[in-house]
Q: What sequence folds into this?
């Protein structure tokens, strides 16, 4: 079955409306209803994923695993021998016809976080790899996303509308949240958006321009697109899934409803600048021995590798146009 793109986005609109009404009823009802709704979500998701299986980008598993040497153009082994996770990565990757190498998303991420491989040149390769494919030695290297992970990303995004990650906002900053001096809505749970904006607009000083940052997903990126999973990968606590459940116009409307005394001075798309600053911050976190040591002692070695990957991944998503970063400047009259 083939469905057109417009059917797909209409379907998603309906989906959003259903969940908007559900989220209203959840706030006014008891937990048994919530359980019912969760099972409803599961059923709806399974049915829809099956319906849309034509969009699953999976390699054919009759194909053979790729050559180590080709992968080494974009990945660097951290020791002279390939570790266990890199063997798994190779075993779970496939070369299909037309010289396409399919890398498993979860195996790749696992391999990097385990410390067996590093990306050779993230600013050069990662935006293309996340957007579609990167050309290596005449072969197209692409990511594929297992159905389970796609299902998980959609479900998490939907459920996160109903729950707060339970993180006090003041502490909810990743290593990158602190690199800029603006309030970043990436750390605000969907349910708290209204309250946080009301609090923010009432606490700013009159006449002083204030900026806040907002990430949104690319307009055409549907939940059923495998790239949704790739894009949502690091929007886990302390971050929230707000970029996937809200829009620029919603946030502007919320700012405008504060008794009419807020003027929005400018709305800028700062994706390119922000991506560059994230690449820079990731470079410092990963390569500056002092900063690295401090981060590892406060968190863990695995936490540090994840944070390094997070920085370049998010920067690459912005460069690839899968995420957009906005800076909204406003003033209280
Ligand atoms: C934001 O800027 C980026 C980079 O210039 C561009 O690719 C993207 O289309 C812009 N998005 C919107 C919604 O303006
Ligand atoms: C760390 O430095 C190396 C060598 O200069 C570079 O290739 C790598 O991309 C840097 N790491 C990050 C995350 O930028």
A:
């Amino acid at each position: 079955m083939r469905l057109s793109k417009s059917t797909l986005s209409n379907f998603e609109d309906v989906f959003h409306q259903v969940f908007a009404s559900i989220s209203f009823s959840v706030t006014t009802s008891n937990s048994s209803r919530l359980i019912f709704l969760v099972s409803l979500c599961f059923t709806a998701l399974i049915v829809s994923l099956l319906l849309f299986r034509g969009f699953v980008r999976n390699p054919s598993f009759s194909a053979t695993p790729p050559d180590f040497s080709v992968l080494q153009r974009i990945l660097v082994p951290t020791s002279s021998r390939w570790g266990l996770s890199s063997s798994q990565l190779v075993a779970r990757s496939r070369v299909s016809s037309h010289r396409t190498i399919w890398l498993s998303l979860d195996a790749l991420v696992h391999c990097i976080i385990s410390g067996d491989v590093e990306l050779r040149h993230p600013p050069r390769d990662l935006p293309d790899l996340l957007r579609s494919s990167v050309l290596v030695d005449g072969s197209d290297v692409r990511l594929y996303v297992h159905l389970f992970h796609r299902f998980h990303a959609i479900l998490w995004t939907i459920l996160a509308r109903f729950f707060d990650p339970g993180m006090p906002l003041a502490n909810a900053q990743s290593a990158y949240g602190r690199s800029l001096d603006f309030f970043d809505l990436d750390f605000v749970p969907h349910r708290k958006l209204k309250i946080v904006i009301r609090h923010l607009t009432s606490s700013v000083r009159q006449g002083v321009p204030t900026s806040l940052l907002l990430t949104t997903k690319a307009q055409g990126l549907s939940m059923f697109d495998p790239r949704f999973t790739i894009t949502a990968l690091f929007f886990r606590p302390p971050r929230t899934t707000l970029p996937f459940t809200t829009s620029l116009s919603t946030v502007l409307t919320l700012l405008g409803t504060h008794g009419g005394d807020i003027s929005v001075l400018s709305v800028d798309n700062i994706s390119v600048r922000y991506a560059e600053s994230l690449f820079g911050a990731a470079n410092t976190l990963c390569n500056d021995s002092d900063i690295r040591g401090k981060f590892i002692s406060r968190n863990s070695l695995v936490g540090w590798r994840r944070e390094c990957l997070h920085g370049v991944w998010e920067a690459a998503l912005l460069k690839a146009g899968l995420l957009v970063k906005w800076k909204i400047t406003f003033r209280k009259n």
